[in-house]
Amino acid sequence: MKTLPTYEIRIAGRVDETTFTSFAGLEVQLRDDDTILTGQFDQAALHGMLEMIRSLGLDLLEARRVDETTFTSFAGLEVQLRDDDTILTGQFDQAALHGMLEMIRSLGLDLLEARRVDAAPPRDDPGAADGGQRGAARPDDGRRRR
């Protein structure tokens, strides 16, 4: 039997407790000011979910199919979608970082940048003028070559 595709549905705002119960059986995450629903749907169920979101008066921002392997591979990380890029944020020691980079490669994903971002630079750090992102500057001054 073929598994159902996984969809991620992004709704503007944080849903209230009553509305929350409408999404029983789905993974619900709050990211920034949005509510993210993730679940497996066939086409009829997906359209039914989108219709329910409309009937509840919620503002649908995005509905997209996600690769289940990729989605579960990044569990536990903060995931942000910006333009056509996916930004993963998490805390890693060196071994975990190399493992994450290997997993990205094995999934066939294009790595655009990997950098360390310090929460706050030490006050006596001469690199503090860069907002604590010492060493994060790209050799091409941040512009992508075409």
Structural summary, described in words:
The chain has helices at 17-20, 43-55, 68-73, 94-106; strands at residues 6-12, 27-31, 34-40, 60-66, 78-82, 85-89. With 146 residues, the chain is an alpha+beta fold. The protein folds into two domains: 1-66, Alpha-Beta Plaits (2-Layer Sandwich), CATH 3.30.70.980; 67-117. The strands form two sheets. It has a four-stranded antiparallel β-sheet. The chain has a two-stranded antiparallel ribbon with strand order 5-6. A hairpin with a 2-residue loop joins strand 5 and strand 6 (85-89).
Provide a short characterization of the protein structure.
By secondary structure, the protein is an alpha+beta fold.
Tags for this entry?
disordered C terminus, alpha+beta, two-stranded antiparallel sheet, single chain, 4-stranded antiparallel sheet, 4 helices, Alpha-Beta Plaits, 6 strands, 2 domains, 146 residues
